[in-house]
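Board notes (copied after class):
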Amino acid sequence: MASALVTGGTGFIGSHLVESLIRRGTSVRCLVRSPERAQLVRQLGAEIVVGDLDRPESLAAAVAGVSVVYHLAGCTKSLREAEMFRVNETGSAAVAKACADRPEPPRLVVVSSIAAAGPAAKGQIRVEADSPAPVSIYGRSKLAGERAAARYSAQVPTTVVRPGIVFGPRDPALAKLFRAIRLLRFHPSPGLSPPPLSYIHVADLVEIVVRAAERGSRLPAHENGSPGLGRYFAVMGEHPSYADLGRLVRPMLGRPFAPVIPMAGPVAWCVAGASELIGHLRGRPEDLSFDKLREALAGSWACSTAAVERDLGFTPPQPLAVRIQETIDWYAEEGWL
């Protein structure tokens, strides 16, 4: 039986990956910091190993005997830049080293983010071979994590998957947005000319991640003339902006007349500053921050699907509107709206 380790398995994406792997007949082990948070994956049938990216001995035990490691654990927001790099860069290095230390290193799939690549110029579509130029602390930390894992690519067959905005059942982030549109009956959108965005449904992302492990190209042992090799954007071919997303979902939420309210740059920066201040006062980061606003006001987050179609044979089975409707239906059934 195939075996896999999933870091970050208790999270939104990780729990879907664990569920899918077990359904495919894979024996799954999850590295978790808190056993109390592992109830869902334990119920799914995963083996639970208590450990942390900061504890090399726990990583060594978790990696032992598995054929694939899916590294999803990461930090998406933090009050401190150093914390984000500690988790996203140092943590990725620790996982890759634990793989490299095995007599027969497992395949490693690092789930990163399109933020690591950075935006394309306005009107352009980014491809994997483009030089990375992240505009946020988060993006720089995720790129640093990719490069940390790549240092071991001569020993560990490694593939990087860069998802766009991930949504689907059990996603709390999009649920907040949809609740706000239902309650406020309008949709505030930062910037007067919001950039096109890239999205991926969690089930489609899981399929890409699994195929990347099975047949994806690997990072070269040395970065020498192979830009983009071993990296894949996990996105759909549709790129609506944040404002367009509001227009798309409002009839699905029973609010066909909820207007989109664009926020000029200075107003958006003030709102982000207030949100960041609240986060520092409460001692936990808010969803909106200066870092996230830098991404929101970028040129274009439209990314190409050509590589996953060519190498992994993947095209989304449903268009974006259908996937969003499925997500809203799940939220409604679970009382999240």
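Comment from the instructor: The longest strand covers residues 27-32. The CA atoms of residues 147 and 236 lie 25 Å apart.
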